[in-house]
Amino acid sequence: MIALGPLAFAAPLALLGLLALPLLFMVLRATPPSPSNVVFAPIRLLRQIARTPETPQTTPLWLIVLRLVLAALLVIALARPVWRPDTEAGADLPVLVVLDSGWTSASNWRAMTGEARSALERASASGRDAALILTAQANRSEEASELRFAPARESLARLAAVEPQAWAHHRGQAAERVETLFSDERAPDRVRTLWISDGIESDGSRTLSQALSARGPLIVSVPEPGNEPVALRPAEANAEGFSVTLVRPPGAPARSVEVVAVADAGQALARGEARFEDGADTASFSARVPLDLRNRLRLIRVEGESSAGATQLTDDSWQRPRVGLIEPAGGEQDQPLLSDLHYAGEALAPHAEVLRSPLDALLEAEPSVLVMVDAAREDSERVNAFVEAGGVLLRFAGPRLATRGDTLLPVALRTGGRLFGGAMAWDNPQRLDHFTEDSPFAGLTLPEDVSVSRQVLAEPGPALDARVWARLEDGTPLVTAERRGEGWIVLFHVTAGPAWSDLPLSGLYPAMLRRVLSLAGRSAAGAPSQGAWQIDRALDGLGRLGEPQGRTHPIPAAAFSEAEPGPHTPPGLWQLGAASAALNVADDATELVRLPRDLPGAVVTTREGGGEIRLTGLLLTLAALLLVTDILIALALTGRLRPARSGLGALAMAVVLLPAGAFDAQAQDAAISDAEAMDRALEVRFGYVQTGNAEIDRMSRAGLTGLGQTIFNRTAIEPGEPRAIQIESDPILFYPMIYWPVTRDAEALSPNASARIEAYLQSGGLVIFDTRDAGLSGLGGTPHPGLVRILDSIDIPPLDRITPDHVLGRTFYLLDDFPGRYGGGNVWVEADPDGSSRDGTSGVIIGGADWASAWATGPDGQPLAPVEGGDRQRELAHRTGVNFAMYALTGNYKADQVHIPAILDRLGQD
């Protein structure tokens, strides 16, 4: 191998072929192309032939240059060039690839597996053995059978099936597998090891580095700062919505990420930006979500961070019910800050939306829980109906209840209360007894300073024990409950304030009330304390929620709070009876620390530094393209093709020089040439409006490109590449359909732009306005501000929601919904298109489904953005795009077909 700086040649003798290029030049120069054959024709045709250019005597210089470049590419490709050749020590040794495969690897998984594949392919090309070790294994026994050095193609086959896991990697266990690997008598003594790391520190990193470096040269590849993963700590519900903290390794440059909250039906309830400041390791995000919508929320995730650690699932404990405090009919007798309602409200406020009103107003607000203190006693049939329908009635005792009971009690009460420590009592104030395992309060810590000085007593009976949730040390009930209809009645046998006990002054009080709140909308008493949790839906390493894979183990109810995600207890939603609990990867203590650079015996490099790149395939591809170009040119020069001859030289030179420069296909001038106008008029192209946001514009272009490919595959239309449009300056009449992503900060149009858009609409054009917010603007009744400013600038007829019989639903596919990345939103069109000058078609379509993201594909044809409804919704989104395009191109053609029977009948009458 001969190296010239970063470029090396594995077969340098092949470069001697370059010496033959001068001889080839002379041969090509002396050999003219074949003459054109002209068939005899009348005089008129002969005159036309006389005006055509004559066949040259020698081959044109530009064609000779093209063929010399083709020959040079072939010679250089045969020399097997390598960019940045691997010249590190041990390059001729067997290869051991160690790949971090925990959840922290998911965000860089493609780059990491690409580097591993490159290393194994180099080993395979040179005939060296190889082995592959993963730091997070789903099935150790399966790996043990494959843990050996073998031809590199076996490791390549195994690598193709590997995916990141949804739990943390265990580098200490990986070090043990290294020792097992080399305990085989057939294992080599020394190897060259490439540890492809996610760049995050964890237990066992130094142990693994020592085990690897003891066997030969060790290279550790890590991502550059700023490319490390982002984790999402558990969300906290508040009165306005929720807040969440994002975590990354410290010291990285400033970065913004998008956070989205998704409902159980897949609809996005909130989205927004969280920004990491320069060097900061945390960022915060808050969202305002109404309670009714917040209780439908099922997960929160970081867009673009496809990992289990960037996803937080919510469960029963996260929801905030609406709680109504019944105000006494005649008002409170105590001071507001000393009343029972004040103590109950303050204890419930962190865990619920608390309303305080008379009973009639509360029932209209449809609460999940009603709180009735002694002063607000209501023996009403409406309260009983509320409980029967599934509500929770939380009652507190007091002097009135001690005097006389009623029907809204879980147990019968004795008349009169029980007093401890009074002048006529011989008992001291009682402390609380420990909660039993079957109590909803099981597991709560009892403060030592809480005592009860007075209580109402329950009448003994055979059903009393089953209804007791908490007792005093002498065994008398403190909290009782009864299931009534679909709801619950819960009674605290003390007051809600500190008049009868110290309980309202302790931290135990709000904890007990929170357990009671878990009854709201549930058929069981809070989180079960017995039994075992079973996995219902699991998160995979890329943060996708789906069916659990492999064998999982149940988690005992008492141990669930201490459970950690692993191969047999994956993160996801777990079920125990009617209860649901989320097991997430990241918790409140999660921190991400960068992998140290002083690992024992290791050389640490950044992944973007890259490994060697073999150029043979690239050069042969370019040579093949040039060969095809040469054949087409030769056919054209001999008259077998009929392209414009004057452009052949420019075409050939453009092909030769294309790799040397970038072609900006987005720049457009307001004044275009005749050739450009002809190109736009003769080829179907879709346009998209540039917003100034690079990411939105990139997704718009990729979306129309993907839609164009779908239309090409399924219809007779062959769309060209989409064009970017500067709406204030570029011509738009050439585009049958324009996609316009509307941002919230979009500005109003100038009078000139407004006039051009109105002329475009009147001439039959179609504009798709997409607010990309899943219709959230409509949920709160507030219109999209950017869309309002744009539409105020244009004279657009009245709009209406699209009807089931609208022609858009049958222009190509039969559709009754028009989803994009999001589904379920409204789509708006002109209310009366028949009154327009466009032959009964609507010139605008308005929605918020983010259609471009659902259509968008990369160069490899793979989708660029996730879709809430999965592959089925993505297919429906593509069908929606096809219908939009056919509507723009054919108008109300399918609407006419609906009337064919009536037309034929009328023709028959005539």
Describe this structure in words.
The structure is a single chain. By secondary structure, the protein is an alpha/beta fold. It is built from 25 helices and 41 strands. The strands form 10 sheets. A 7-stranded mixed beta sheet has the order 18-17-19-20-27-26-25. Strand 37, helix 19 (751-762) and strand 38 form a beta-alpha-beta unit. Helix 7 (171-182) runs parallel beside helix 8 and helix 15 (616-637) packs antiparallel against helix 16 (648-657). The longest helix has 22 residues, at 616-637. The radius of gyration is 37 Å and the shape is flat. The model is unreliable at 422-426, 522-526 and 643-671 (pLDDT under 50).
Based on the model shown, name its key terms.
910 residues, alpha/beta, 25 helices, seven-stranded mixed beta sheet
Shape assignment: flat
Q: How many individual helices? A: 25
Output mean pLDDT.
Answer: 82
Helix content: 25-40%
Question: Which residues sit in consecutive blocks of at least 5 with pLDDT less than 50?
Answer: 422-426, 522-526, 643-671
Structural class: alpha/beta
Radius of gyration based on Cα positions: 37 Å
Beta strand %: 15-25%
Please give the number of β-strands: 41
Distance from N terminus to C terminus (CA atoms, Å) equals 89 Å
Describe the main β-sheet briefly.
7 strands, mixed
Please list the strands of the largest sheet in the order they lie side by side. Answer: 18-17-19-20-27-26-25
